Amino acid sequence: MAINRHYDFIIAGAGAAGLSLVWNLLHRKELQDSRVLLVDRKLKPLRDKTWCFWDDRHVPFQDLIHHTWDTLAVRFQDAQFSETLETYRYHCVRSDDYAAKILDMARRSPAVTLLEADIDSFEFESGASATGGTAVMHSSEGSFTARHIFQSALRPPGFHQLKLDLSLLQHFEGWHIRTDKDLFDPGTATFMDFDVPQDNGVTFVYVLPFSKRDALVEYTLFSPEVISDEAYRQGLEQYIAQRLGLEPGSYEIEYREKGVIPMEDRRYPARYCKNVWNMGTMGGLTKPSTGYTFTRIQHHTSAIADALSRGQNPPDKIMSPYRFRVYDMLLLYNLHRDPETSVTIFRELFRKNRFDRILRFLEEHTRFDQDLRIMASVPWMPFFRAIYGMKHRILTGA
Ligand SMILES: Cc1cc2nc3c(=O)[nH]c(=O)nc-3n(C[C@H](O)[C@H](O)[C@H](O)COP(=O)(O)OP(=O)(O)OC[C@H]3O[C@@H](n4cnc5c(N)ncnc54)[C@H](O)[C@@H]3O)c2cc1C
Questions:
Q1: Left (φ > 0), alpha (ψ -120 to 50) or beta: where does 96 sit?
Q2: Is the dihedral of CA 359, 360, 365, 366 positive or negative?
Q3: Residue with CA at minimum distance from ligand 1 atom 52
Q4: Which residue's CA is minimally distant from atom 10 of ligand 1?
C-alpha cells in the first residue's frame, strides 16, 4: 500500500520524547482527527535504559513504573545519610516496557502511521500551501511533509556554534545483578555512593534494588572523557565485591546498560527550523548539573500537546528559568574544575537539607528564598569562584 506523504504532525525519533508525545497526542480529544507519522530507524521495544525520576505528577503512564523506592541513601568517605521521602518517591521505568506499551497503542490507533527509516534532515518550504508553508522531513524512505514536525533525532543546525563554556559527560555502565542470597532492601535506593576511588573525575555508584536478590548497580562518572570498557568493569567488580561482598562468579549479570549524557551549558534552540521543533536531548532538555531529563521531557511533550489542542503553536521557550540556569552553571563549573570540592558540596547538601527539599530544588520547583537556604548550606567559596569564572555568561542571560 502506498504510504501517505503528508501528515498533520510528524514525530521524528521514537525514544523517550517521541513516544511521550505520541501518548499525549492520542490522549487529547481535540486532536483525535489528526494524522500522525511516527518515524524511527527501529520501532521495536529495546531494553537499553532505566529511567529514574521523582516528580510523578506529569508522568501519565503510572502503570509503567517498574519499581518505587520510599527511602534514599547517600554515602561519602566519612559520612552516610538515609531518609524516607515525604513528598516524593523515587521511581524507575524500563525503556522496553515504555516502548512496548506506547508502540502498541500507536499501532492500534487509526490516527498513527509507523515508519522505519533513517532520518536525514528537515527543512521548511515556504509558500507551498495556503497555510503559508510546510515542514519537510527527508529520510531513507523519501520526503514527508507536515504542519509541524517534532524531532528528537538530529542535532539542531549550528549546534557547534552554540555558546558553550562548560562541557562534561555523565557516563556510566550498569549491571543488573542477581544473587542467590538475600542482600538488598527493595525499599531503599542508594542514590549516590561517593565512597569509591575518585581518580577519573567525580565518581559515584547508585544501586537500585528490585527485590532482596536483584539490583541494578550503576558505576557513574562526571568527567570530560569516557573511560575504557575495562575501567567500568573494574569499577563495578570492585564495588560489588567491597560494598556488597560478592566476588565475580558469585552473581549473575542479567542485563547491562551503558550511556553517555551531555552535561553542558549550551543553550539549545526550541526549533530546528520553522515548524520543526526540537525535543528531548536534542531540545536541550537535559538538566546540565545532573543529567536528569525524563521528567522534563514529560512536561515538555504535555505542553506541546496542550498547545496543539488549543490550536496554538508549541511553546517557543523550553529553557529553564534564568536563576536555575545560573545555579546549573555554577555547579557544573565546580564539577569541571574541582571534582574534590564538588564531592564536599554534595556531602554538605545532603547533611544539611531534607532530601525532599533537595529533590524539589533539582526539579526547579523551589522559591528563591528556599534556593538561598539551600545555597547557604554548602561551602560558599567555590560558588564565588564560579560566579567570577562565569560572569560573562551570567551577565548575558546565562
Ligand atoms: C542509558 C541511559 C539511562 C538514562 N537514565 C536516565 C534517568 O534515569 N533519568 C533521567 O531523567 N534521564 C536519564 N537518561 C537521559 C535521558 O532521559 C535519555 O537519554 C532519554 O532517552 C532521552 O530521550 P530522547 O527522546 O531525547 O532520546 P532517545 O530516547 O535516545 O530517542 C531518540 C530516538 O531517535 C532515534 N534516532 C536517532 N537518530 C535517528 C535517525 N537519524 N534516524 C532515525 N531515527 C533516529 C533513535 O533510534 C531513538 O529511538 C538516561 C540516558 C541513557 C543513555
A1: alpha
A2: negative
A3: 259
A4: 292
Please give the Cα distance from 248 to 229 (Å, whole number): 16
One-letter amino acid of 30: E
Cβ-proximal residues to 377 (8 Å cutoff; 6+ apart), any chain:
348, 349, 351, 352, 353
CATH superfamily of 167-264: D-Amino Acid Oxidase, subunit A, domain 2 (3.30.9.10)
Average pLDDT of the chain to the nearest whole number = 94
Is the distance from CB of 142 to CB of 270 less than 8 angstroms? no
Alpha carbon distance 164, 333 (integer Å): 12
**Per-residue pLDDT tens for 177-210?**
999 999 999 999 999 999 999 999 999 999 999 9
Which fold would CATH assign to domain 6-65+94-160+265-309? FAD/NAD(P)-binding domain (3.50.50)
Residue 31 Cα distances to 20, 150, 151, angstroms: 15, 15, 19
CA of 351 to the centre of ligand 1 (A): 33
* pLDDT for res 297: 96
Cα of 21 to ligand 1 centre, how many Å?
14
Look up cell 529533590; give the residue.
359
End-to-end distance of the chain based on CA atoms, in angstroms? 51
- pLDDT (tens digit per residue) in 57-94: 766 678 899 999 999 999 999 999 999 999 999 999 99
CB-based pocket (< 6 A), ligand 1 = 13-18, 40-41, 49, 51-53, 118-119, 152-153, 257, 259, 261, 280-282, 292-294, 297
Q: Which of 88, 104, 178, 129 is nearest to 5 (CA)?
A: 129
Taking only Cα atoms into account, the Rg of the chain, rounded to an integer number of angstroms, comes to 22
Rounded Cα–Cα distance for residues 293 and 57 (Å): 15
Please give the sequence-ordered ranges of beta strands (E in DSSP) within the chain, or none if there are none: 6-12, 36-40, 50-53, 65-69, 71-76, 79-84, 90-94, 112-116, 119-125, 134-139, 142-151, 167-178, 188-193, 202-209, 214-223, 252-264, 271-273, 276-278
For helices 355-362 and 368-376, the axis angle rounded to 10 degrees is: 120
Rounded to 5°, the CA angle 226-117-63 comes to 70
Spatial separation of the C-alpha atoms in residues 66 and 190, rounded to whole Å: 17
Q: Alpha-carbon torsion 140, 285, 43, 133, what sign? A: negative
Question: Residue 107 is placed in which grid cell?
Answer: 499501532
